[in-house]
């Protein structure tokens, strides 16, 4: 099991410690940590546009983190989220550009389904290979990240019709019939690229929570993850469950990619490496500690740091990479929660000792009074 | 192009691309044999690449042609220090190995670029002046036919990597230390009962992976990318991890898998110069190594078995 349950205080301590590590690094390299963090906060919450940016950043991370969690509940380590997201992104944008005249109420649902399905297929393949042949899903998903990256770029550069491309490296923007952006939302956030995607992501948290916690399928996935042999003896098909879990995982990543395509960028362009939303989603899932509400909180925190970090070099001179160091440190402390629990235990023991001493003093006083009274 | 010329081109570029993978995948083997899963190889390579480039840029005038070799040492030391983070987290603080490895991977590029910006004031370094280039292996390059193909204008780090692979195989399977390391990875409780220090052995496993991963990154930086930026190490660590699993946690197997990956990566690069492959669309050459890996894995290897206690924290009874 990769994802463990953590209590809330561990997460809080981790965030605090992570920020302290960041502050120390800023101090060591001669930056002022206070102005650094003020710059971070003000560029994450300074305007409605910044808040829109945070929500845009959160959207795919929620979905890829959900995908990672589903796979790891079934006992799989899905490093392929990036590739699966890419499959959804390329597929959805290509489809949307190919049918510019389709009405929005047909186009948007079908594009979302297509992107999700492509991601699901990309997740299903390693799941099936693992179930059928015992091939390590870690290797297969790593390899598929590369395959999908090269295929995606090749489709853009060599397969797509010239008429839907801006240049050799970029497609045209998708039309209004396929865009997930909403006018009122764009106006509200002063032209940020936040879209309906954020609502889809929030709904998916509830849907995935429901499927995993309240349905037979979710129970089977959890059972296989905890003990595949026991699940088998209880009549669960471990193979089928493995394939389904990886397909759900990939589907969520594919949806994340689709929303990046139709909600955030509105196009597809040559990628130099697998999209980072896959790896970042993994980090969000780990930070969220396996709880679905935790994923929402972790995605929000992650995005505030990322968007806030963009403003740090301008106003305080601190390189943007500092926020990644802070994020990594936070996750380090979440992982090493034994340390935090140990500290908490120490504090508690000290409190108890102090309380016991206080009580001892009190009782001693009372006793002496009684003795006095007795005289 | 003559046959010898073709073979020379393919072999030398294969060795160039294989060398970092061989070092790093063997590093991973040491770590996982001791029972610590190391997803952080990618990050360790990144720090090794960072250190070697900074060293190379700073001391190129002082050490001349020796610089890249000393750069490897710099990469090894920084890789070692960085891997301690993983060792402390997993062995001492009982962190989940995947979480800790992910931290390493998130931390390395951020820290590397942060420091580069602090030192040089921009996000990537200048190209280094002293790189590995191509070297001849003395004596062996005089062998007819084989000499020119394998030992003339070849990658020196690759031959070092091959020697390290053989040495590592000997250490893991033929020495007392190796036996102990493996026993800790298979059944830490039994090893503990016999008086072995589980924590110390696991620390050494992870630290060896830090050294070799750092060297691997330094080789990439000083023979392929020739500078350091956020794009220097993108995915080589994960491929090395795949090579380790593919090689069944055996240094020689890891070396074989790394050579295979190196060959297919080099075909994607030099394929255009080769007769017969010239007319194949480049996309097929690009994805071939990865598709082939999956096919080989599925049909010829099937189930791979990790060391039994790989990724399982050992909590000593008080």
Automatic annotation (TrEMBL), chain A:
Membrane topology: Multi-pass membrane protein
A molecular-function term among this protein's GO annotations: transmembrane transporter activity
The entry's keywords: Cell membrane, Membrane, Transmembrane, Transmembrane helix
Record-annotated membrane-spanning stretches: 12-31, 51-70, 76-97, 104-126, 138-156, 193-212, 242-262, 283-305, 325-343
CDD domains per the UniProt record, alphabetical: TM_PBP1_transp_TpRbsC_like (cd06580)
Record-level GO cellular component terms: plasma membrane
InterPro entries: ABC_transp_permease
Principal subcellular localization: membrane
Keyword Protein biosynthesis: no
Compartments where located: Cell membrane
Name the UniProt record assigns to this protein: ABC transporter permease
Organism: Leuconostoc pseudomesenteroides
TrEMBL record, chain B:
Listed CDD domains: TM_PBP1_transp_TpRbsC_like (cd06580)
Name the UniProt record assigns to this protein: ABC transporter permease
Domain of life of the source: Bacteria
Subcellular localization: Cell membrane
Membrane topology: Multi-pass membrane protein
Keyword terms of this UniProt record: Cell membrane, Membrane, Transmembrane, Transmembrane helix
Gene Ontology cellular component annotations, sorted alphabetically: plasma membrane
Regions that span the bilayer: 34-57, 69-92, 98-120, 132-150, 156-173, 203-222, 228-247, 259-277, 283-301
Organism: Leuconostoc falkenbergense
InterPro entries noted in UniProt: ABC_transp_permease (IPR001851)
GO terms of molecular function: transmembrane transporter activity
Predominant localisation class: membrane
